């Protein structure tokens, strides 16, 4: 599981997403997206799926094309130039973050960043906003686009790593398919008995395959497990070291297994 926390401001928004090891990866917190992604997401029951990622709470950034003020809500149409403008609603009574006076209301031709929940009613997409920030720094626009790209790649990479772990869990049952399976995938009940996760077992196998006195470098381990995020690999190394499965050698970047072949 990969988790990152959110920090928002007028000038910068950090990445916020959480991936679960499920057939479809769900973004539990706020994930930066474009309007085109919101509109292209496919309906699957009560869920909206885009590129096998379940979208719920998102952030978009664009220019206000129109504003409609009602007693209980503000209605905006936001255009980020990736698709047609998207309707955004901010309920005044139910949202303590709603503008307290009219000077805080975003106006036409202003850039804003919207944080909210996607709604789909009778095929019409919109966002119920729980926060709208007026963009004071043009760099925020570029930052958001980079965040959109990074979030998508990170979620896809996490999904690939999750699938690799699932494959590894069943690898023992297919051990007869080859007499010399890759070290990264060849682990069986021994690792499961030790209480290791699939990622920890794969890292352990790679390190065990090294018989050199100086051990294997973290860089080499990462190259052998390219489908797994580097942070997950380092977390696995830290766990294996603490549990006595491996030990550092010449420095903190080289490790050997306590039962190296």
UniProtKB/TrEMBL annotation:
Where in or outside the cell is it found? Nucleus
List the InterPro entries.
NA-bd_OB-fold, RFA2-like, Rfa2/RPA32, RPA_C, WH-like_DNA-bd_sf, WH_DNA-bd_sf
The UniProt entry's GO CC annotations, sorted and at most eight, read: chromosome, telomeric region; DNA replication factor A complex; site of double-strand break
GO molecular function terms noted in the UniProt entry: single-stranded DNA binding
Gene Ontology annotations of biological process type: DNA replication; double-strand break repair via homologous recombination; nucleotide-excision repair
* Keyword annotations of the record: DNA replication, DNA-binding, Nucleus
Top-rank taxon: Eukaryota
Annotated Replication protein A C-terminal domain residues? 152-253
Q: Name one Pfam family in it.
A: RPA_C
Q: Which Gene3D superfamilies match?
A: Nucleic acid-binding proteins (2.40.50.140), Winged helix-like DNA-binding domain superfamily/Winged helix DNA-binding domain (1.10.10.10)
Family named by the database record: Belongs to the replication factor A protein 2 family.
Q: What is this protein called?
A: Replication protein A C-terminal domain-containing protein
